[in-house]
């Protein structure tokens, strides 16, 4: 499921100063002092979490935002005692995010607090647990997308996005967070926020979406294999063999995926096997941003993604199969691959590779090569930056030109 949200604007940072009372408790005593926040860090079962790093930041803190200056200026670090406790004394009134973490133990947690300085003593319990991977996509113009940052409001986590707008946080603490996509304006030393979304980390594996829906129309799923692999044709060299079928994804993914087996019947060095899907004619992909797909293999090996052209018309004297392609390391874990035209192999004699510029306006087929002696699984092939290219109604170059007009 994709959750969408559009919010604009950025709160002004409120500077805070906190000081730590380093005294330890004794039996029957308390660490609480006046005008302070007494923090207890514990595991889910209530066990005290000793020697945890505790970080205090204003809720308006946004990691990586240029208008906030040096990140280190806006966060102060503490450590819990043997009983998982620490006192934050002389805290000014304000809204804060208090995070507890121990990276070596792979434990993180946070709580938000609206603190009033007049309060005598404010208790706060922070529960820590294993962090969660969170991913999503930002809908932005391509030029903006390449300069954008994705951060978590009030926490010190920030990641870039790739050319498709995809981002991924490897390890976020559980709880309700707000993820922000923004771009720094170096000329004005300010931040422009393009989207915000709230999500509950740890509650499920939802894919998040931020940004402007106007850019969704240039993205589509080429094939998710939920309806099988009938449109794909397995092909192999003379001394090789390829078998293709559809299987349940497994290994952390859902639904159906394409599965093909590459076998070699001889010791020939240049044996090859692939699965390919015809586009129904010449397709001009000059404006293609990228193609994304997921894959895994039965063992550590290589896969190749190819844009093929079968040349056989009156305007060209020879009939040949030429291509532009890129090669990727693959192993037993599902991995997301981004195929960017500018990063494909430069023209060489390998497999008829003539380079992207030579074939980009007349692609007739997409293909995926597997390494000999391996099994390959492929899922969710998506196209970015191409609003005309329709996988269910392939078009010719002439038709594409008419639509663009």
Q: What would your notes on this structure say?
A:
There is one protein chain. The chain has 405 residues and is mainly beta. The chain has two domains: 1-211, Sandwich (Immunoglobulin-like), CATH 2.60.40; 221-404, Sandwich (Jelly Rolls), CATH 2.60.120.430. The protein is 4% helix and 49% strand. It is built from three helices and 27 strands. It has helices spanning 142-145, 356-359, 397-404; strands at residues 2-5, 19-21, 36-42, 53-58, 76-79, 85-89, 94-102, 107-115, 121-127, 132-139, 149-152, 158-160, 166-172, 175-185, 190-201, 207-211, 219-223, 233-236, 240-250, 253-264, 273-283, 290-297, 301-311, 320-330, 335-339, 363-370, 375-384. Strands 17, 19, 20, 22, 25 and 27 form a six-stranded antiparallel beta sheet that branches. Strand 19 and strand 20 form a beta hairpin. The longest helix is centred in the last third of the chain and has 8 residues, at 397-404. The two termini are 35 Å apart. 36% of the residues are buried. Mean pLDDT is 78; it is low at 1-32, 68-74, 313-319 and 390-405.
